[in-house]
Model the fold of this input.
Amino acid sequence: MRISTALLSVLLLAAPLRAEEFHAYYTRLPYEQTVLPEVLAEVPASAAREFRRGAIEDPDGQSAGRSFPDASVADADTAIRVPVEKYRQQSEIRWGRYADLVVSIDGGHRLVFSRQTGYLPYLETAKGKFPVKRLVEYRDDPMCLCSYVRLIEATPQRIVVHWRHVPDPTRVAMTEVIHELFTVTPDGSVTREIRVGRPRLDDFGDPTNVILHHIRLTQDGIVEQSLTRGGPAAKFDERSTGLDKAVDAAPVRQEANEGSVVRLTFDDSARPRGNPVEGDASGGPAEGVAVANARANQAAGHTTETVSGTRCPIDGNTTLWKRGVSGTALAFDGYHSRVALPADKLPKIANELTLEAWVVLGAYPWNDAGIIHHAAGKPIGKQEYKHGYRDPYTYRPWRMQGYMLGIDPYGRPIFKLNGQQVGGGVLLPEETIDPDTTLPTYRWTHLAATYDGERMCLYADGRLIESRPATGPIEAPNRALLIGLNGDPQQISDPVSHSDYAVNNNLPLVYGIEGLIDEVRVYDRALTAEEVARSHRRFSPPAEELASPDLQRRILPGEVTGEPAPHFGAAYTTLKYHELWDNLWRPSPYRDIVVRFDSVPGNVVFWQGPNFGSGWVTENNKWMSDQSKEIGGPHGCAEHMADKRGRFGHVRLIENTPARVVVHWRYPSIDVGYVFPGVNVWVDEYYFIYPDGVGVRFVEAVDGGWHDTQFLSQPGTTCIDNVELTALSVANLRGETAELTWAPPNHVPPNPLKDACIKRINFKSQWKVFAVYREGVEIGQWGAGEQSKHTPDPVAGPWNHWPVGLNPSDGRYAV
Done:
């Protein structure tokens, strides 16, 4: 929706009448931003490396894909970049009117957070400018790509300012952030708290990762009073380490002497808690050396492979123990979490093989993903990827050398061996997924795969689900055995892009299993069907635990209760989605904004998940969001949705009164390869939100364009679980209306009112979301061109990579 710029003028905060007043205000200081083309050109290369983080190398130092002589490694390793010369032809970085922040101190001096210094504050007095000391190492960010400053609190007693910056503005790692909080009092005293992002969540939350700096602002400059490295920081959300978290472990079940050559029980967190071995109420032998070893593993992020006694590192953001089918299980986030058993510790497996594990899926993976992965996958080059535009609806399994027990992108269990596969398989455009072949989410499942030199067999919950003839010795690569994560990058399945450039719009990513894994076994022989069934029975938990695993549900954080709030207003917060996703980030306590109403039982949510685009949330947590400003880049659409690592966009609360809330959202239109199509691709949006649940949206300095109204389906639901088939009601200014009805399979209705500028989204909720545009806008339904052939849902798709998925894709069919 668009309004006159005249309306925006009411937002400008009045200049102080008296210089000695204690207050803070946003402004835009007279400063021309520096443009550094070389820095912008560095970002895509950094992103390409980040997407491949977690890929492993063979002991000879070669990447895994090179074991295939026809692999197009060069294609996989090349990042598309905008020529530096193009950036040099542009000189302006667009800024809104709240670019800088000033804190006015009693006595007439000011603490200034300016773009000119990348928001490192300086004291300004009649005697000059005095910069605040730099206390952590970081590369300057003169374009303020990743740096921003926000006014968190302003009262007569204190002012709190949050400055977010990064160690290197060209990198897109989600964990590399620096948060600085400045608490200022009227007498010029300042308490500065600094926390630096760390790869491990426990290190980020550790009290020793806090710097406390006490200074005083005077007319003569800055006086340092104390500097402490390490200690509690009250404003940050302290998170306990995995060692301190109580784990409600299941009884550790007695094991038969089944002769596995690799065994990972993940019980390192169970037995130190005093959980008895089943049948041994005292837990006697569990104490002593076993307890000490388990505590050491738990603290260091390791787990023990119990056959060889090898301590295996648990890579990822954190070591997250959960209740397992026996003792404890490990949680995996699908992007970074994995356990690795080094190649030199692996037993030789030549002619026969059995793999087994228990798994809970929180979501299906982006493509074929390994629970147990001792394989090397061939990277797909541009020529081989031709099906991405010639035949986009055909799914083809990922070819691999070695062996893997895993899940395909539709939730079907798969077993790969020597380039052959049972389970899953090619999915043609006219085929839909048989639900009987897929694993349910949020339920424990036992999977097993066997090879006896003549046949490959795949089992689920002790039952044979598929087999095929196969012969030959097992050809495993000389690399680590991985649990929960693939060792090679690969494109996602079901890409939306149909053009010759489809491969550019769907970049390789290292991904894996999102959920829980427990009781992993590898054998150098083929178990019989009865032995597989017996193993399933041995560890199968009670029925109530089977369907209620220790895995948080994915519930969008609309923060609704079904009732209006006590008061109208907005607040900074950091919303919780589910811990596997939340653990990927290193936020401040003030990352998101929620607007609540005292007359409407819904909220407006500006959350990291949709990259801070507004979410208009009904009383039963149905979400309407919007695509916002879109332009083009070398990797497809360039828009706020593409910044999946959360590097550049942010929201700020400008005004919060009983009369209205004003929120400022700033983001760049970049593509999924993190290419800036130009220097001046920044967008400033302002939301004026009123107590009756109505808001006015203004997109500053942007002419034309188009926007997508989108609704978000909760994980585990389909589109038609959330919206009526008569999904849209439209009206024009003459009072004419029309009801638009979708119908299976894949029918999208036309809009008979070409001059309609009002629409209502008919959620399955009591309260609906509506939008009113300026006269002359055309409301169209273009989604018929981007629907999966594998589902009859007429409103499905195409973006199940968004809002919370991290795959670098310009679109993926929702299936």
Q: What stands out?
A: The longest helix spans residues 37-51. The longest strand covers residues 353-363. The chain is about 10% helix and 30% strand.
